[in-house]
């Protein structure tokens, strides 16, 4: 895709840029904006899935000092319940 022009405008106390539909990411997409000199680079944030989270936990591994054991929970005797 070639070059597409747009304008900067005020939105409250911020500046905003309208992304024409030919290049828009879609609704409710989180983006990261990076300034490099006079340029702004807009990248969509990757969506994290449950599988990504599980893979990250496996990569981290178990705690070095092990997992603490809880004392057993003793339920009080409550007659009539």
UniProtKB/TrEMBL annotation:
GO molecular function list: DNA binding
UniProt-listed InterPro entries: SpoVT-AbrB_dom, SpoVT-AbrB_sf
Short name of one Pfam family: MazE_antitoxin
Highest taxon listed in the record's lineage: Bacteria
Region entry Disordered, spans: 62-81
Segments forming domain SpoVT-AbrB: 8-48
Protein name: Antitoxin VapB
Organism annotation: Sphingobium boeckii
């Amino acid at each position: 895709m070639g070059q597409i022009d747009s304008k900067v405008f005020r939105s409250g106390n911020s500046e905003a840029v309208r992304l024409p539909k030919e290049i828009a990411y879609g609704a409710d997409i989180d983006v990261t904006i990076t300034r490099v000199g006079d340029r702004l680079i807009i990248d969509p944030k990757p969506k994290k899935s449950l599988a990504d989270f599980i893979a990250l936990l496996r990569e981290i591994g178990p705690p070095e000092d092990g997992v603490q054991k809880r004392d057993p929970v003793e339920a009080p005797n409550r007659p009539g319940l």
